[in-house]
Amino acid sequence: MQSQLISHALLGRRSALALLASGASVVCLGTGSATARSAAPASVLDLSDPLDNLYAFGKIWSGYDAPVIGAFHGLMYARIPGRRAVPLFNYVGTGILQAKIAENGDLMIKSRETGYFTDLQSGEILEYWQNPFTDETVEVYHFYNELLGGRIGQEIPQFLIGGDHQAPTLMNAGTAFPDSKGKYPFRLPYQQFGDDGMVSWDYAHEHTNPVTPAGWPSYSTGAKIAPSEHFTFNFSRRALDDRSLPTVRTTAGFTRLSEPWPFMRMGKAPAALREMTVFGRMFSHKGLPSVDEVPTKLLAYVEKHAPEYLTLPSDWPARNDRVDTWNAFVMDVPPETTDYAWAWRNKTRPVGAQPPTGLGARSYQKTNDS
Protein backbone atom coordinates (compact mmCIF):
# COMPACT_ATOMS: atom_id res chain seq x y z
CA MET A 1 0.00 0.00 0.00
CA GLN A 2 1.40 3.37 -0.93
CA SER A 3 2.21 5.80 1.86
CA GLN A 4 -0.32 8.57 2.32
CA LEU A 5 1.32 10.89 4.82
CA ILE A 6 -0.91 13.90 4.56
CA SER A 7 -3.30 13.03 1.80
CA HIS A 8 -2.92 14.84 -1.52
CA ALA A 9 0.45 16.46 -0.93
CA LEU A 10 2.41 13.31 -1.34
CA LEU A 11 3.21 10.25 -3.17
CA GLY A 12 4.19 9.31 0.35
CA ARG A 13 4.96 12.27 2.52
CA ARG A 14 5.63 15.99 2.46
CA SER A 15 8.81 17.95 2.80
CA ALA A 16 10.33 16.39 5.83
CA LEU A 17 7.73 14.30 7.40
CA ALA A 18 7.83 17.37 9.10
CA LEU A 19 8.39 17.30 9.99
CA LEU A 20 11.05 19.57 10.11
CA ALA A 21 10.43 21.71 8.65
CA SER A 22 10.69 22.22 7.39
CA GLY A 23 10.88 21.60 8.12
CA ALA A 24 10.61 21.67 10.27
CA SER A 25 13.31 19.37 11.66
CA VAL A 26 12.21 18.13 15.05
CA VAL A 27 12.60 14.84 16.92
CA CYS A 28 10.53 14.80 20.06
CA LEU A 29 10.74 13.83 23.65
CA GLY A 30 8.70 11.50 25.80
CA THR A 31 6.33 12.28 28.64
CA GLY A 32 7.81 9.40 30.59
CA SER A 33 11.27 7.85 30.93
CA ALA A 34 12.25 5.36 28.23
CA THR A 35 15.22 3.73 29.95
CA ALA A 36 16.00 0.15 29.03
CA ARG A 37 14.78 -2.66 31.26
CA SER A 38 17.37 -4.91 32.86
CA ALA A 39 15.61 -8.02 31.57
CA ALA A 40 15.71 -8.89 27.89
CA PRO A 41 12.55 -8.04 25.92
CA ALA A 42 10.12 -10.85 25.22
CA SER A 43 10.64 -10.49 21.48
CA VAL A 44 13.13 -8.85 19.16
CA LEU A 45 11.97 -6.66 16.30
CA ASP A 46 12.66 -7.98 12.82
CA LEU A 47 13.77 -4.75 11.18
CA SER A 48 13.81 -6.40 7.75
CA ASP A 49 10.01 -6.61 8.06
CA PRO A 50 8.41 -3.29 6.96
CA LEU A 51 5.77 -3.61 9.71
CA ASP A 52 8.38 -3.87 12.48
CA ASN A 53 10.50 -1.22 10.77
CA LEU A 54 7.56 1.20 10.74
CA TYR A 55 6.77 0.45 14.39
CA ALA A 56 10.41 1.15 15.31
CA PHE A 57 10.46 4.43 13.41
CA GLY A 58 7.32 5.63 15.20
CA LYS A 59 8.86 4.79 18.56
CA ILE A 60 12.16 6.52 17.74
CA TRP A 61 10.76 9.61 16.06
CA SER A 62 7.83 10.03 18.42
CA GLY A 63 6.06 7.65 20.79
CA TYR A 64 2.85 5.73 21.31
CA ASP A 65 0.05 6.07 23.88
CA ALA A 66 0.62 9.77 24.67
CA PRO A 67 2.13 12.88 23.03
CA VAL A 68 5.86 13.45 23.42
CA ILE A 69 7.65 16.82 23.47
CA GLY A 70 11.19 17.42 22.27
CA ALA A 71 13.56 20.01 20.91
CA PHE A 72 16.23 20.71 18.32
CA HIS A 73 19.00 23.29 18.41
CA GLY A 74 22.24 24.07 16.64
CA LEU A 75 24.34 26.51 14.65
CA MET A 76 23.72 27.63 11.07
CA TYR A 77 26.46 28.77 8.68
CA ALA A 78 26.62 30.38 5.26
CA ARG A 79 28.96 28.79 2.74
CA ILE A 80 30.11 30.63 -0.37
CA PRO A 81 32.43 28.65 -2.68
CA GLY A 82 36.07 29.47 -2.01
CA ARG A 83 35.34 31.33 1.24
CA ARG A 84 35.40 30.41 4.90
CA ALA A 85 32.01 29.37 6.31
CA VAL A 86 30.33 32.23 8.21
CA PRO A 87 28.33 31.57 11.41
CA LEU A 88 24.90 33.23 11.04
CA PHE A 89 22.62 32.37 13.94
CA ASN A 90 21.40 29.44 15.98
CA TYR A 91 18.35 27.48 14.86
CA VAL A 92 16.10 26.11 17.63
CA GLY A 93 12.61 24.74 18.00
CA THR A 94 10.14 22.44 19.68
CA GLY A 95 7.90 19.65 18.57
CA ILE A 96 5.09 17.67 20.10
CA LEU A 97 4.28 14.42 18.36
CA GLN A 98 2.30 11.25 18.75
CA ALA A 99 2.10 8.04 16.76
CA LYS A 100 -0.12 4.98 16.59
CA ILE A 101 -0.26 1.86 14.50
CA ALA A 102 -3.32 1.54 12.27
CA GLU A 103 -5.19 -1.75 11.95
CA ASN A 104 -3.38 -2.56 8.70
CA GLY A 105 0.05 -1.84 10.23
CA ASP A 106 0.52 1.64 8.75
CA LEU A 107 2.06 4.30 10.98
CA MET A 108 -0.25 7.20 11.84
CA ILE A 109 1.35 10.43 13.06
CA LYS A 110 0.42 13.90 14.19
CA SER A 111 2.62 16.80 15.28
CA ARG A 112 2.85 20.50 16.02
CA GLU A 113 6.15 22.36 15.82
CA THR A 114 7.97 25.67 16.14
CA GLY A 115 11.23 26.98 14.67
CA TYR A 116 13.20 30.10 15.64
CA PHE A 117 16.54 31.77 15.03
CA THR A 118 18.59 32.99 17.99
CA ASP A 119 21.52 35.30 18.61
CA LEU A 120 24.86 33.51 18.45
CA GLN A 121 26.14 34.93 21.74
CA SER A 122 23.10 35.54 23.93
CA GLY A 123 20.86 32.74 22.69
CA GLU A 124 17.89 35.13 22.67
CA ILE A 125 15.27 34.55 19.98
CA LEU A 126 15.74 37.07 17.19
CA GLU A 127 12.98 39.43 16.14
CA TYR A 128 15.41 41.33 13.87
CA TRP A 129 18.77 40.29 12.44
CA GLN A 130 21.65 42.23 10.92
CA ASN A 131 22.54 40.54 7.63
CA PRO A 132 26.37 40.61 7.41
CA PHE A 133 26.34 40.26 3.62
CA THR A 134 23.94 43.09 2.77
CA ASP A 135 24.34 45.17 5.96
CA GLU A 136 20.54 45.31 6.14
CA THR A 137 18.51 44.82 9.30
CA VAL A 138 15.76 42.33 8.47
CA GLU A 139 12.70 41.17 10.36
CA VAL A 140 13.00 37.49 11.23
CA TYR A 141 10.42 34.89 10.22
CA HIS A 142 9.34 32.44 12.94
CA PHE A 143 8.11 29.07 11.71
CA TYR A 144 4.91 27.61 13.16
CA ASN A 145 3.40 24.38 11.86
CA GLU A 146 0.02 24.42 13.57
CA LEU A 147 -0.81 20.80 12.78
CA LEU A 148 0.55 18.00 10.64
CA GLY A 149 -1.24 14.68 10.42
CA GLY A 150 -1.38 11.62 8.22
CA ARG A 151 -0.03 8.13 7.77
CA ILE A 152 3.04 6.36 6.42
CA GLY A 153 2.47 3.10 4.59
CA GLN A 154 4.65 0.06 4.21
CA GLU A 155 6.62 1.48 1.29
CA ILE A 156 9.30 4.16 1.49
CA PRO A 157 7.55 7.52 0.97
CA GLN A 158 8.12 9.73 -2.03
CA PHE A 159 7.56 13.44 -1.37
CA LEU A 160 5.75 15.49 -3.99
CA ILE A 161 6.58 19.14 -3.35
CA GLY A 162 5.81 22.09 -5.60
CA GLY A 163 3.05 20.57 -7.73
CA ASP A 164 2.39 17.56 -9.93
CA HIS A 165 4.92 18.72 -12.53
CA GLN A 166 7.79 18.27 -10.05
CA ALA A 167 9.87 15.10 -9.81
CA PRO A 168 9.11 13.35 -6.50
CA THR A 169 11.79 12.94 -3.84
CA LEU A 170 12.48 9.41 -2.63
CA MET A 171 13.04 9.32 1.12
CA ASN A 172 16.43 7.82 2.00
CA ALA A 173 17.73 7.80 -1.56
CA GLY A 174 21.08 6.04 -1.32
CA THR A 175 19.93 3.50 1.27
CA ALA A 176 16.46 2.62 -0.08
CA PHE A 177 16.43 0.16 -2.97
CA PRO A 178 13.62 -1.45 -5.00
CA ASP A 179 12.62 -5.09 -4.64
CA SER A 180 12.04 -7.48 -7.54
CA LYS A 181 8.66 -5.82 -8.20
CA GLY A 182 10.13 -2.33 -8.38
CA LYS A 183 8.64 -1.32 -5.04
CA TYR A 184 10.52 0.24 -2.11
CA PRO A 185 9.58 -1.61 1.11
CA PHE A 186 9.81 0.51 4.26
CA ARG A 187 13.19 -0.64 5.58
CA LEU A 188 15.22 2.13 7.18
CA PRO A 189 18.94 1.24 7.45
CA TYR A 190 19.35 0.23 11.11
CA GLN A 191 22.76 -0.62 12.53
CA GLN A 192 23.71 -2.04 15.91
CA PHE A 193 26.93 -2.00 17.95
CA GLY A 194 26.40 -3.63 21.32
CA ASP A 195 23.22 -2.05 22.68
CA ASP A 196 23.78 1.12 20.63
CA GLY A 197 21.24 1.31 17.84
CA MET A 198 21.57 3.75 14.95
CA VAL A 199 19.42 4.63 11.97
CA SER A 200 19.64 7.32 9.31
CA TRP A 201 16.85 9.30 7.67
CA ASP A 202 17.42 11.57 4.67
CA TYR A 203 15.54 13.61 2.13
CA ALA A 204 16.90 15.82 -0.65
CA HIS A 205 14.41 17.97 -2.57
CA GLU A 206 14.58 20.00 -5.76
CA HIS A 207 11.48 21.97 -6.69
CA THR A 208 10.03 25.28 -7.81
CA ASN A 209 10.56 28.07 -5.29
CA PRO A 210 7.13 29.21 -4.01
CA VAL A 211 8.78 32.49 -2.93
CA THR A 212 9.00 33.63 -6.53
CA PRO A 213 11.30 36.39 -7.81
CA ALA A 214 8.26 38.05 -9.42
CA GLY A 215 6.25 38.24 -6.21
CA TRP A 216 8.94 38.58 -3.54
CA PRO A 217 12.00 40.04 -5.31
CA SER A 218 13.84 40.88 -2.07
CA TYR A 219 13.11 37.55 -0.39
CA SER A 220 13.52 35.14 -3.32
CA THR A 221 16.84 33.54 -4.26
CA GLY A 222 15.61 32.29 -7.63
CA ALA A 223 13.21 30.03 -9.48
CA LYS A 224 14.18 26.78 -7.75
CA ILE A 225 15.30 25.61 -4.32
CA ALA A 226 16.88 22.35 -3.13
CA PRO A 227 16.56 21.92 0.65
CA SER A 228 17.70 18.70 2.29
CA GLU A 229 17.98 17.24 5.77
CA HIS A 230 20.05 14.31 7.03
CA PHE A 231 19.44 12.69 10.43
CA THR A 232 21.30 10.06 12.44
CA PHE A 233 19.27 8.70 15.37
CA ASN A 234 20.88 6.97 18.35
CA PHE A 235 19.01 4.81 20.87
CA SER A 236 19.10 1.66 23.02
CA ARG A 237 18.29 -1.39 20.92
CA ARG A 238 17.08 -3.20 24.04
CA ALA A 239 14.61 -0.37 24.75
CA LEU A 240 13.50 -0.31 21.11
CA ASP A 241 12.68 -4.03 21.21
CA ASP A 242 10.71 -3.69 24.47
CA ARG A 243 7.11 -3.19 23.34
CA SER A 244 6.07 -2.34 26.90
CA LEU A 245 7.87 0.99 26.44
CA PRO A 246 5.74 3.45 24.42
CA THR A 247 8.78 5.50 23.40
CA VAL A 248 12.56 5.24 23.51
CA ARG A 249 15.17 7.75 24.62
CA THR A 250 16.60 9.12 21.37
CA THR A 251 19.34 11.57 20.53
CA ALA A 252 20.09 12.66 16.99
CA GLY A 253 22.54 14.73 15.06
CA PHE A 254 21.34 16.29 11.86
CA THR A 255 22.43 18.53 9.05
CA ARG A 256 20.20 20.89 7.10
CA LEU A 257 21.18 22.51 3.79
CA SER A 258 19.29 24.97 1.61
CA GLU A 259 19.39 28.28 -0.16
CA PRO A 260 19.30 31.34 2.16
CA TRP A 261 16.12 31.55 4.23
CA PRO A 262 13.65 33.98 2.63
CA PHE A 263 13.70 36.40 5.59
CA MET A 264 17.43 37.01 4.98
CA ARG A 265 16.39 39.13 1.96
CA MET A 266 19.16 37.97 -0.33
CA GLY A 267 17.09 38.41 -3.49
CA LYS A 268 18.77 41.63 -4.57
CA ALA A 269 22.26 40.68 -3.43
CA PRO A 270 24.97 39.91 -6.01
CA ALA A 271 24.49 36.57 -7.77
CA ALA A 272 27.39 34.91 -5.94
CA LEU A 273 25.71 35.66 -2.61
CA ARG A 274 22.30 34.46 -3.76
CA GLU A 275 23.89 31.13 -4.59
CA MET A 276 25.28 30.58 -1.10
CA THR A 277 24.34 27.49 0.87
CA VAL A 278 22.99 27.88 4.38
CA PHE A 279 23.69 24.78 6.43
CA GLY A 280 23.41 23.73 10.04
CA ARG A 281 24.92 21.20 12.39
CA MET A 282 22.32 20.48 14.99
CA PHE A 283 21.08 18.22 17.75
CA SER A 284 17.64 16.78 18.35
CA HIS A 285 16.51 14.68 21.28
CA LYS A 286 13.53 13.21 23.13
CA GLY A 287 12.78 10.78 25.91
CA LEU A 288 12.94 12.80 29.13
CA PRO A 289 9.76 13.57 31.11
CA SER A 290 7.49 16.54 30.38
CA VAL A 291 9.38 19.49 28.82
CA ASP A 292 12.81 18.56 30.22
CA GLU A 293 14.31 18.33 26.71
CA VAL A 294 13.53 21.96 25.82
CA PRO A 295 16.28 24.57 26.45
CA THR A 296 15.29 27.13 29.08
CA LYS A 297 15.10 30.28 26.91
CA LEU A 298 13.26 28.46 24.15
CA LEU A 299 10.74 27.01 26.58
CA ALA A 300 10.10 30.41 28.19
CA TYR A 301 9.44 31.98 24.78
CA VAL A 302 7.04 29.25 23.65
CA GLU A 303 5.18 29.21 26.98
CA LYS A 304 4.73 32.99 26.77
CA HIS A 305 3.83 33.40 23.09
CA ALA A 306 2.62 30.02 21.81
CA PRO A 307 1.68 27.67 24.68
CA GLU A 308 -0.74 25.79 22.43
CA TYR A 309 2.31 24.46 20.57
CA LEU A 310 3.06 22.28 23.59
CA THR A 311 -0.28 20.46 23.16
CA LEU A 312 -1.92 18.22 20.56
CA PRO A 313 -5.59 17.66 19.66
CA SER A 314 -7.08 14.29 20.53
CA ASP A 315 -8.20 13.44 16.99
CA TRP A 316 -6.04 12.25 14.08
CA PRO A 317 -6.52 14.73 11.22
CA ALA A 318 -5.01 14.50 7.74
CA ARG A 319 -3.48 17.96 7.28
CA ASN A 320 -0.39 19.49 5.72
CA ASP A 321 -1.17 23.21 5.50
CA ARG A 322 2.21 24.40 6.78
CA VAL A 323 4.72 21.59 6.58
CA ASP A 324 7.14 23.44 4.27
CA THR A 325 8.82 26.65 5.46
CA TRP A 326 8.88 28.33 2.04
CA ASN A 327 5.17 27.64 1.42
CA ALA A 328 4.30 28.79 4.94
CA PHE A 329 6.24 32.00 4.26
CA VAL A 330 4.17 32.60 1.11
CA MET A 331 0.98 32.07 3.09
CA ASP A 332 2.05 34.47 5.85
CA VAL A 333 3.96 37.24 4.05
CA PRO A 334 2.08 39.13 1.29
CA PRO A 335 4.05 39.68 -1.94
CA GLU A 336 6.12 42.82 -2.34
CA THR A 337 4.80 43.25 -5.89
CA THR A 338 1.38 44.84 -5.38
CA ASP A 339 -0.35 43.39 -8.47
CA TYR A 340 1.15 39.90 -8.09
CA ALA A 341 -1.41 37.07 -8.24
CA TRP A 342 -1.12 35.98 -4.60
CA ALA A 343 -3.13 32.82 -3.91
CA TRP A 344 -4.24 34.12 -0.50
CA ARG A 345 -5.16 37.65 -1.49
CA ASN A 346 -8.91 37.08 -1.72
CA LYS A 347 -9.47 33.98 0.35
CA THR A 348 -9.25 33.05 3.99
CA ARG A 349 -6.08 31.39 5.15
CA PRO A 350 -6.51 28.08 7.03
CA VAL A 351 -7.74 28.19 10.61
CA GLY A 352 -4.75 28.01 12.92
CA ALA A 353 -2.32 29.30 10.29
CA GLN A 354 -1.73 32.62 12.04
CA PRO A 355 1.79 32.68 13.50
CA PRO A 356 1.91 34.16 17.02
CA THR A 357 5.22 35.99 16.46
CA GLY A 358 7.77 37.06 13.85
CA LEU A 359 7.54 38.54 10.37
CA GLY A 360 4.72 36.17 9.45
CA ALA A 361 2.42 37.51 12.18
CA ARG A 362 2.33 41.05 10.78
CA SER A 363 -0.11 40.57 7.89
CA TYR A 364 -2.61 38.79 10.12
CA GLN A 365 -2.41 41.61 12.66
CA LYS A 366 -3.21 44.13 9.92
CA THR A 367 -6.17 42.02 8.80
CA ASN A 368 -7.47 41.73 12.34
CA ASP A 369 -7.08 45.49 12.91
CA SER A 370 -8.87 46.47 9.70
Could you characterize what this model shows?
- The chain is an alpha+beta fold and 370 residues long.
- It has one domain (7-369).
- The chain is built from 6 helices and 15 strands.
- The protein has helices at residues 50-61, 237-241, 271-274, 296-305, 325-332, 362-369; strands spanning 68-79, 86-101, 107-118, 128-130, 137-139, 143-152, 158-159, 169-170, 190-193, 196-204, 207-208, 224-225, 228-236, 250-258, 277-286.
- A 9-stranded antiparallel sheet has the order 6-3-2-1-15-14-13-10-9. The chain has a two-stranded antiparallel ribbon with strand order 4-5.
- Strand 4 and strand 5 form a beta hairpin.
- Residues 1-38 have low confidence and may be disordered.
Primary descriptors:
28% strand; 370 residues; disordered N terminus; 15 strands; 9-stranded antiparallel sheet; alpha+beta; 6 helices; two-stranded antiparallel ribbon
What is the fold's blueprint, element by element?
Blueprint: H1 50-61, E1 68-79, E2 86-101, E3 107-118, E4 128-130, E5 137-139, E6 143-152, E7 158-159, E8 169-170, E9 190-193, E10 196-204, E11 207-208, E12 224-225, E13 228-236, H2 237-241, E14 250-258, H3 271-274, E15 277-286, H4 296-305, H5 325-332, H6 362-369
Antiparallel strand pairs: 1-2, 1-15, 2-3, 3-6, 4-5, 7-8, 9-10, 10-13, 11-12, 13-14, 14-15
Mean pLDDT over the full residue set: 87
Tell me the number of strands.
15
What's the gyration radius in Å?
20 Å
* Strand line-up in the sheet with most strands: 6-3-2-1-15-14-13-10-9
Number of domains: 1
- In helices, the fraction of residues equals 10-25%
